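Journal club prep — side note

Before the paper discussion, L.F. wants everyone to see what a predicted structure for a comparable chain looks like in token form. Sequence:
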Amino acid sequence: MMTDTVFDTLTGLTWCQNANVAEYPLDWKAAHDFVNEMNKGGAFGRRDWRLPSRRELFTLISHEVFNPALPEDHPFQNVFPGYYWTCTSCHRLPDQAWYIHLGGGRIYRGMKHGCYLVWPVISAAGELPYAEEQWRWEVDEQGILDRHTGLTWSQPANAVRQPVTWRLALDSVKAMNRKSAGMHTDWRLPNIRELESLVDINSHSPAMPPNHPFARIADGYWSSTTSVYEPSYAWVLYSLDGAIGVGYKAKTDFYAWAVRRN
């Protein structure tokens, strides 16, 4: 039975319980128009619906399951394992906007005249922000602490100077621990959500905060997160615009970047 809305206690966001409230795909403008009509009609007793931002929709994603890529105990209905619009335009290519694949959790951009699904959201505090505060970073010889997440990232932004396979990415981070002389032995390959936490979608080339202190940012990075769709692939971050996709583990297409919990 539909209860119309679902409140997420972790984020403070309110979602339509029906994840396909528009019933059919819409282009980006039509998606906004549809949500505006919902507000005019007071849909589900509210008049402050909007398309979710990229970061907001990503908060629902679980890369441990697929079809849909939502936590197994989720309360939503009519979740289609396809692409859903966000309200977030691509900074480098403003005629495109970000969408997220609810089948597997991929984040990519598409032309705004393309047609994808609509899942409205409400937040009393406005869109979830991308942290841009000047105090965010703490730099020392041991790495760079992101105060926003409590994660410390290796500096420079690659454990090795060339792209490697996924297995070599894991091994290169282990080698960092062996060479640390007992100072820090908890470096590891980040999971995909940790990598995405570095993304600033208001920037590009790379899609990271303008004041970031990292050196030698590569085009793409392996995460430790294996694809549950196909275990021979792992999730990766593309740093140009901040896309999230997968790479074939046996190919030397991506770099390793180490992280540890501060």
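L.F.'s comment for the group: Residues 80 and 233 are 23 Å apart (CA to CA). Keep this in mind when we get to the figures.
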